[in-house]
Amino acid sequence: MEAETLNETKHPFKIEDKVRIVLVGNPNSGKSSLFNSLTGLNQRVGNFPGVTVEKRSGNFKVNSQIKAEIIDLPGTYSLSPRSEDEQVTFDYLNDNNRTDIPEIIVVIADASNLKRNLLLASQLIDLEKPTILALNMMDIVQRNKQEINVEGIQKAFGIPVVPMNARIGKGVDQLKETIANYKHQKIKKFVDDHLSKDALDNTLVRYRKIKEIVQANLKSSGESVTAQMTRKFDKVLTHPIWGYVIFLGILFLMFQAIFSWSTWPMDWIENGFLVFGNWLGDTLPQGILNDLLVEGVLAGLGGIIIFIPQIALLFTFIAILEDTGYLARVSYLMDGLLKRFGLNGRSVIPLLGGAACAVPAIMSARTISNKKERLLTIFVTPLISCSARIPVYTLLIALVIPAEKQFLSFNLQGIVMMALYLLGFLAAIGTSMVMKYLVKSTERSHFIMELPIYRPPRWKNIGITILNKVKVFLFEAGKIIIAVSIVLWVLSSYGPGDKMAQVEQKYEQIKNDPTQELTVNEDQINSEKLEASYAGHIGKFIEPAIKPLGFDWKIGISIITSFAAREVFVGTMATLYSVGDEENTASIKEKMANAVNPNTGEKVYTKATGYSLLIFYAFALQCMATVAIVVKETNGWKWPILQLLYMGALAYFSSLLVYQIFA
Amino acid sequence: MADTNKLADCKEGDEATLIGVDDEQLSVQLFCMGCVPGETLLIERIAPFGDPIIISVEDSFISLRKEDAMQMTVKKK
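Structure tokens for the assembled complex are given below, as produced in the milestone run.
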């Protein structure tokens, strides 16, 4: 009796005009389909406070009077949390402090896998909160010639049950109706806690009970069609030889597509920003604000947006592979290998993603439940050559390797490019193998993963996933890059004392002097100004340290400025070598090729310097956005700083070695 | 029992009944995914070098590592 009154007061339930829906379910139960079908584009992605778990929330109308807000909790198999994602779900459901508006838990269960999915449902019922059970994937149940007695299940569980097929939106209206008409009633506990002492025991008691319920309410005739189909696919796709061949083939096609298809939109974006920047620069009154906006903010913004096509494409592929169920097989195929390096089958996704951009790649490491394996994955992902290195590689390779040069009848430039990618990958797994012994962990490493049945991709879900990923990348990385761009702009636009003014004065005099024949190039002024700026002074200051690598102070400046993002290297070089058209790499290339050391009269860009610089950019963590995301994902500065130092040292000593070999 | 094995010792295509799981944390995870004592496990796939493996319970497919499979006692059918 006492318990009953307690519950009545704890959960006063009456929907007036607002309700909060909390969506819970097993992974692969169709939770995101239901979420997307309820909210459409009316959704937001954020983070749960204090943790790095993605929080999806949104709004929808239950009927003409009732508005609902909906929270999509991370997928979980049970209420005994084993990963950060599941902990979030657990904490959210056990938090009794949200009393502002009535709340209904909607637990979505894969009806084609009833026993396992009902386990979570039974645990949720025992929280004694208003709960609705959505039986999803009824289409598969039908295809497998099974029949579920929905009413029987409703009776056994004591909560409303709505059959649906969220994939095509079937049953969603009935769910809304059930929400609107939800009547508070005391829920009978599924399993009394007093009967079972520990979690294990409790699960087994639940299981026995569920088995009885399922046996009584599920009519099945023969083998499951979908499981048979999945087995057929898996015969090939997880085959000890063909499985790997197919995976490599898909990988190859994927990267071909990413790099070739993205060229067009990337050119448009680049040109668009150029045109807009010029227009803005001409339209706004001249002055500091103009410079800051055009050269600082806009240049920084352009530097991020240009990567969106590649990131969007990469995530399109990953989303398709994930949605069809294939990505889980890739994790299975790779776990045996990656385990030896202290990683996990699931590390495949971040390592693949790292080839486009380390920022979203590091975010995707969240699905690795083992803390150590996740940390190692985050630590080594930036060593994979990302798309921001491409402009740097392209420029430097073109500079030191003649286009006609061949190696075993292959174009040598292409071989060097590939070697750099390979080097990045080897450095990543090598680092991880060493780290495996250095990072202590008491947590046992598991790789228990459900392989979902193969299904055609849900294009709407994929579209929404890509949109969300791009948004997160833009805002997370964007904030930092703009901030650093502004700092770098200040460093290269201002100098100590009156040095900058002196340069301007000098050229002012030359311009006004009628006896001077020399025509003054605007870029020559910029170049000299940069030398007089703070950035120039820093470059000169660090020159002794980078001289053994074959770098001069100009390269020093570029290394500093390109800390914002690697591709800034090309732009800074362009300014330093006073090239007229910044977009024309060929002319930067020529200028750099002709650059001569004033003291020795020797060429600056010898083969040794070129290779050394290539290695430097392959290894150094020259990316503010990555540092920022690692701070966020590891909840502190320890790991990003270690990563920065480690990759810096690796880059420095590898470059030193390369330069000494080739010099 | 003389006729029990570790799951890790089973071959591709074997069918076995799960008897128990030694590691407690592991057992909670497995139970939640439908791998409960008394259920029939089918060894679907063993990756090169014996690790990891894919098993199926009812109609769900689960991938796990060899060292986890060593903790699982089964009775071959």
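The domain at 4-76 of chain B is CATH 2.30.30.90 (SH3 type barrels.). Residues 21 and 72 of chain B are 5 Å apart (CA to CA). Further analysis is deferred to the final report.
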